[in-house]
Design a protein that fits this description.
Structural class: alpha/beta
Mean pLDDT: 86
Number of helices: 10
Helix content: 25-40%
Oligomer: single chain
Order of helices and strands: HHEHEHEEHEHHEEHHHEE
Number of strands: 9
Strand content: 15-25%
Length: about 280
């Protein structure tokens, strides 16, 4: 899932050193990011993304969603405030050297906040997307509110803002696997602990940002992997399990993930987990 699950970023010091961020970014780009392609396609189709679209992607990761919008003719700007390793991969995709014929010249990638994506001469954006799903860990929408507060002044009046969340646990097989992400030392519902998605998560974020609600939809996004090893690498690449690794050790988290994936292994050794994600469309006042 930019990506396809909510990312949790540890401090660059201390336990974070146990995570190879460059390898994780590569696994995200090669394994996990594609899982939300049906969602991106559904949103772009509904909002008629095309040559007239000026898109601002928040938390753009390694850039697959931006690449899909650019292929429709949209002018895209990606902002990635927390994962420079992923942004480096997005540059390889979207700003190759020498420039490739598949990417338009009005593509921008910004390592920083939304304010860094605009100046006095930048036209207003006609679409803002935040494709990282919320509603998986307690407190996982906290950073999104700040991003929206910085991004919405850059968008045109009435421009759609797209937020994404996990569907109900009974329709998301991955929910059972995500329980491994809960740190053993966390109190129930503490920040960083697993919790089921709530129906109004997206609406609450949009309303706190002063946006006007304007519809929603659900999209099936199954997570499919070639084998358990690939599934573990893909899920670890989300960053969701970094806190658990810091609280225990990588081998223990790998073991628990492998066990949690067992019900979703098929006879051909592939792993298949049906999921439903929900998107909300809100409007800039």
């Amino acid at each position: 899932m930019s990506p396809t699950l909510v990312r949790q970023h540890l401090s660059p010091t201390g336990p974070a050193s146990r995570v190879d961020r460059s390898a994780r970014a590569r696994d995200w780009s090669e394994i996990q990011e594609r899982m939300l392609v049906p969602l991106y396609e559904a949103v772009y189709e509904r909002l008629e993304v095309g040559p007239r679209t000026r898109l601002l992607g928040l938390g753009c990761g390694s850039g697959l969603a931006l690449l899909m919008a650019a292929s429709r003719g949209a002018a895209v700007t990606g902002v990635e405030p927390a994962a420079p390793e992923r942004l480096a991969l997005a540059r390889q995709r979207l700003l190759p050297d020498p420039p490739g014929g598949q990417v338009r010249g009005d593509t921008r990638l910004v390592d920083g906040s939304p304010e860094d994506a605009a100046d006095a001469t930048t036209p207003a954006y006609s679409l803002v997307t935040a494709f990282e799903p919320i509603g998986c860990l307690a407190g996982d929408s906290a950073g999104l509110g700040a991003l929206l507060a910085a991004a919405t002044p850059l968008a045109a009046h009435g421009a759609p803002v797209v937020l994404v969340g996990w569907g109900p646990p009974e329709r998301c097989a991955t929910s059972a696997v995500l329980r491994v992400a809960r740190k053993p030392t966390d109190p129930p519902r503490g920040d960083g602990s697993w919790r089921p998605a709530l129906r109004d998560d997206l609406e609450e974020v949009a309303q706190r940002a002063g946006l006007r609600l304007d519809g929603s939809g659900r999209v099936a996004c199954p997570f499919g992997y070639a084998d358990v090893t690939s599934a573990v690498r893909g899920l670890l690449s989300t960053g969701l399990f970094d806190a658990a690794i810091a609280a225990t050790d990588p081998a223990q988290v790998d073991k628990e993930l492998t066990e949690a994936l067992h019900p979703y292994r098929r006879r051909d050794r592939t792993v298949w987990m049906p999921n439903v994600f929900r998107y909300l469309i809100a409007r800039v006042p």
